[in-house]
Amino acid sequence: MVSQTQRPDIGLRIDVIDQPEDIIQAFDCVCEAFGRQVQDGVWIAMNPGWDTPQGKASGAERMVARWRNKTNDKNGLPNTVFLKATLPSPESESRIIVGFSIWVQASTVEGHGDPPVEDLVNALDLNTLYPGNEPEQRYLCQVISSLHKRRNEVIKEKATATPPAVMILDLCVVDPAHQRKGIARELVQWGIDEAQRRGDLEATTEASSMGRHVYGQMGFQADGPEVEYVVDKEFASRSKPPNLFMRTKGSGV
Ligand SMILES: CC(C)(COP(=O)(O)OP(=O)(O)OC[C@H]1O[C@@H](n2cnc3c(N)ncnc32)[C@H](O)[C@@H]1OP(=O)(O)O)[C@@H](O)C(=O)NCCC(=O)NCCS
Q1: Has residue 7 been placed in a domain?
Q2: Which InterPro entries has this protein been placed in (predicted)?
Q3: 5 in a domain, yes or no?
């Protein structure tokens, strides 16, 4: 692991989100990073109208629903943890959310984490997102299946590990206005530490072309080539973001 260069203390805090208002505020960071900055084609397809007030509100609402519906493992720990990174606001006593990450404990063994998603149409609520739009629903199922192919294989491989689970960094964003201040590093370190606390679990992620710079310095290594998106011919020309499956313990289960 690369040692962190001395940075000025910016008053950064990492906390577990425990109120829906924070998810809504954090969703702004997600829109700024994945929508405006990266223009990530898959994220945009999952969040139609993200750059309109109504589309943004719907996206935030879906995220709040996900937060509300989180499950616990047999030890009572949440299988999904939503983290916020905050800085003191320059204008008031309050703090502003500048980064957001989601960590998921996953397992095929009951009580040890959320199982791999089988029914993407339901899990992604595609009938609400794209009612009656079969091609768009099919496209999203194909890209998400491709993106999570290796993740799901590893969850299954871990069924014989002790404990039989992995910690997945499912999402990590930092508001572009606050990038390169070491914020992602702290959001990632929290999850790595939590994985350790939960029984030395391996951490995995699908790393974007920006994210891999951070994760590579924090003990994640690439496992396999760039994600290959297996989609029907009609979707071949759509822009799909580069992603690399990365994990902290190599291929040994
Ligand atoms: C990827 C992302 C989360 C990184 O957030 P961040 O807070 O800026 O990252 P950090 O400041 O913690 O970076 C730590 C180190 O990683 C490396 N790094 C981070 N971003 C980098 C980039 N874009 N290019 C090259 N190196 C980078 C640097 O070595 C950096 O240290 P330094 O600034 O002292 O050189 C942020 O750029 C982002 O939200 N991008 C858009 C969405 C995205 O791709 N998310 C990742 C999904 S997997």
Answers
A1: no
A2: Acyl_CoA_acyltransferase, GNAT_dom, Trichothecene_AcTrans
A3: no
